[in-house]
Model the fold of this input.
Amino acid sequence: MNEARPKPAAPARQFQTPRELREAIRRGEFRGPTAGLCPGYVQTNVVIVPAADAQEFAEFCRQNPQPCPLMEMTAPGDPEPKRSAPGADLRTDVPRYRVFRRGAADKEEPQDIRSLWRGDFVAMLLGCSFTFEAALIAAGLPVRHIEEGRNVPMYVTNVPCAPAGKFAGPMVVSMRPYRPEQIDEAIRVTAQFPQMHGAPVHVGDPAILGIRDMGRPDFGEAVTIREGEIPAFWACGVTPQLALENARCELAITHSPGHMFVTDLKDERFRLEAGGRRLGGR
Done:
């Protein structure tokens, strides 16, 4: 297992509300990963595509609900996610973006995409596993990348997604290590959040997923896996970014991996009790 030497965790700036965080991002005062920020609130992945591609991408999400749990879809040209965060602006309120042109990602990751925004753009918000990390911590299950002040490690797998038109590609997973006696509880806690990727898709040998080197994630940063710990892998919302590469849309924009959009929605609204009843009402 990876016994990487952890770098000291930088003190995380505390934000009282998602709105305060989004305003700091909009002013250029915060540009880092969002894991551990605004616990209790839903974080989402962001995918922005031309309206001509939106329905086909939405179908890709419907065909692959665990890595791509679609939560909200804006009207063409409207950057405000009215259901998830009224008054927010998806052109400015994400710490960093990735821009895809004909499937190729730009090297630069902008902090503001107003100059790229078009009247036919449709933005989609997908559930994110950062949402259930507060519940893991509350259950006494530490989250290693938060402890070490790193971006979550993410790996491309050999598991194919169900295609939808030109959108196709492998599943991406995020990883959190736990001791064997903690695994069942980690599964139980995260299974309560099916719209945030739910339970792990795999626990144990990374080679089964086609992952060769845990110390070299495809996105994010490696974290320490201590002696006796087992890696657990959750479906990840970076999966659509590989589908965008294959689809070769004229222009598409996403969040940079680990740099999420933080909504005003409370995570308890999306948590299921045993038996499937949703907490917090509708």
Observations:
- The chain has six helices and eleven strands.
- Confidence is low (pLDDT under 50) at residues 3-11.
